[in-house]
Amino acid sequence: MNYRVIDRETYYRKGVFRHFSEDCKCSTSMTARVDVTELAAWSRETGTKFYVNFLYILSKVLNSREDYRMGYLWQTDELICYDVIHPTQYVFHEDTETCTPVYTRYCEDYAAFYAGACEDIRRARQTREYGLDAANHPNWFDASYISWLSYDSLNIELPDGHLFFAPIVNWGRYREEDGRLVMPVSVRLNHAIADGYLVAKVFLLLRQEIEAFAGERGMA
Length: 220
Known about the structure:
The chain is an alpha+beta fold.
């Protein structure tokens, strides 16, 4: 785990950071529908898991900008930026109706990420332990699939006084609209390090990366 300390005096969001980390501690979240038609088609044709493919694209997007890799060290009161962040995904156990967190390492190499994520899921299915270990996984972000519903909105609440900067992303089932497959995606970021533009940018980057992913693999 590597990171660099951000100089708050030269930080490009200096004024916004001070306001939303001291005067008005809050988060900002957004839900939008993402077109996943080509990604779903490619996943079917290749026999790969749509879920893992989307998790890879999401992880790539969130690693593409420093704004999404920010962290806060309360012990030293330091604003930091991690070199890389990884997804905490979840495995749902139908028999107990509980979840097991799965710490998967992000790798830009798609084949390596796909194999690692699938193996992590396989191992997690063998346990019923909640196994949350956030203290030893500071540069992990929350990535949770709500498979039972194609919802319209979702909001994640965290204590306003807690400077938690890791992204929290949820997505639901995709559904057909006007001949296209659209999927609800929700993104939550702390307002101290992200505003409406940076939250919206996640969706724009997702669209861009989905098109590139399918296009590079013959589905453009």
